[in-house]
Write a structure and sequence with these properties.
Blueprint lengths: L8 H12 L4 E2 L11 E4 L4 E4 L5 H10 L2 E6 L7 E6 L8 E4 L2 H18 L1
Antiparallel strand pairs: 1-2, 2-3, 4-5, 5-6
């Protein structure tokens, strides 16, 4: 399994864009240094896809794929979020990060990778 936690926001956004967007025009590199959004076009316009910073993308993923999100270390300066696949499986996919959207995306990609190998 890939180590999604080591990937940049751009790399995670790119992997998610390839799974969610039905367009051939997806930029494979950031347009600017340090940019996290993936640029994609529909033939007429270009758009930015930045799921690591956009609840409107991540929220529906949580509902559709049953990914639970809980806060960890709530009263500490080390606040982080646990995303967990809601399943009866004995080994659910989990991720922890200070960015809750990123944690959810990591769990989703882990679930997709597990489905592809089965």
């Amino acid at each position: 399994m890939k180590d999604y936690a080591q990937m940049t926001d751009f790399e995670l956004n790119l992997m998610l864009a390839k799974k969610m967007l039905d367009w051939d025009d997806i930029e494979l590199k950031p347009r600017k240094e340090g940019q996290t959004a993936v640029a994609w076009g529909d033939g007429y316009n270009w758009y930015d896809f930045d799921a690591c910073h956009d609840w409107s993308v991540v929220g529906p993923l949580m509902v559709e794929y049953k990914i639970n999100l809980t806060v960890k270390n709530r009263y500490s300066s080390n606040l982080s979020w646990d995303a967990t696949e809601v399943t009866s499986d004995m080994d659910p996919k989990t991720a922890n990060h200070t960015n809750p959207r990123r944690a959810v995306i990591i769990v989703f990609l882990m679930m997709e990778e597990a489905n592809e190998t089965n």
